[in-house]
Amino acid sequence: DAKRGGRGIVRVFDESMDEGIRFRRRVESGLSQAIAKGELSLAYQPIVSRDAIDVVGFEALVRWNTQEYGLMSPATFIPIAEESNLIHELGDWVLGQALDVLQQWPGQYVSVNFSPRQFRRHNFVGHIMESVQRAGIAPARLQIEITETAIFDDAERAAETLYKLRQMGFRIALDDFGTGYSSLYNIRKFALDCLKIDKSFIDGMGRERESAAIVHSIIHLGRALGLGVIAEGVETEAQVQALRLAGASHMQGYFFSRPVNAERALEMARKGTVSGSDDVSTDDHRI
Ligand code: C2E
Ligand code: MG
Ligand code: MG
Ligand code: MG
User: Fold this and answer.
1) Which residues line ligand 1 (CB under 6 A)?
2) Does residue 112 contact residue 95 with C-beta atoms inside 8 Å?
3) pTM of the model
4) Domain EAL: where (predicted)?
């Protein structure tokens, strides 16, 4: 940068770091008050059966309407919450909210994302059980979404946690499958119900043979292990056709519906289908 002249790279680097840290602090302090201020909400995205007729469940996705930046993506603030203790408070709020809404749906499950730190929290199993019992919900109606990162650090302990959860009747989904550090050796030891194929592979399916091959492999793996396979981020008719042919058991994506608010989700849940839902919502993040 010519304007900075002799100050050099180190100085430029420092400045950008300061900015990053300032942003993080601001997000952290904003987030610590977000629940009390009512700035958080949940959006629900339907998960549909292979034939795209039945809505079997909804993924709960947290939304934060910040005063400073507008609607902020969870991809931005969840990692910041994860690095501080805020993830627990935020996670508890998400779970409580999702379970409340679930009570009104006829039979679908709610799929809730848990970050690695939540999953490794002391007495995670007891905590989850207590929450569903308090809400009067059958464990089978809660799907716990975790990523490979959450379980592959300490595989032994994770396997035990998952086993207990599964014994109690919870559903377990491995999210963003294929992007983390799974080893097939470990996968077979984990008590899972389904694999969620990451959107990046679905995106690539029509473009590159490699992505299509990976998608097919994951679907075969899932079937061989007796697991469901949810394809994430399905946006086009062509993807739907290809995934059906490949044998994916479930799909989720903008093609069917964007994440919608609780009211709209309830309508879909009651109808039991996404067809005919003239979805015009955008659910776009500004940051
Ligand atoms: P994820 O769990 O993999 O969620 C799927 C993401 O893909 C969501 O982004 C969803 O809105 C988006 N998506 C779904 N279908 C499509 C599609 O067809 N096209 C495109 N372009 N996107 C699609 P979102 O809501 O921004 O969430 C991002 C990530 O933030 C989530 O990825 C999850 O890792 C995390 N997250 C969201 N809510 C929570 C939460 O309550 N707790 C935790 N711990 N993490 C959360
Ligand atoms: Mg997820
Ligand atoms: Mg995912
Ligand atoms: Mg993701």
Assistant:
1) 45, 61-62, 73-75, 78, 94, 113-115, 175-176, 199, 232-235, 253-254, 259
2) yes
3) 0.92
4) 24-273
